[in-house]
Specification:
About 25% of the residues lie in helices and about 40% in strands. It is of the alpha+beta class. The chain binds cobalt (II) ion.
Amino acid sequence: MTELLLTEIDHVAIAVPDLEAAIGYYEETFGATVDHRELVESDGVEEALLKVADSYIQLLTPTREDSPVAKYLEKKGPGLHHVGYRVADCAAALQSVKDHGGQVIDQAPRPGSRGTTVAFVHPKGAFGTLIELVQE
Ligand code: CO
């Protein structure tokens, strides 16, 4: 048996074409407030994190046409993009994915937003869900 490598749901990421409109929706409808905003140039996205207990709702919008989130919006429209699982050790969790025959997008952990270390796991081999492993 593999020991539990996930410590929390870190975030649920939703791709949106209009970040301000989506923030407004969550603020007005659910009273959620923005805890952190960041432009992640390397991923071609701007994100807003709204805190819910120890987890976040991550609203994502593309900053350029060739960003993966832009392509996602074009193909599928706005909606659930990925789930971020918090882990104590990103490298160890990524290794476990590889050891169990999973497909990874990032071969090694890399810097994520808010100073985290992250790695993405391909939805193929993960039952159709893009997974982000997030180490704080
Ligand atoms: Co994410």
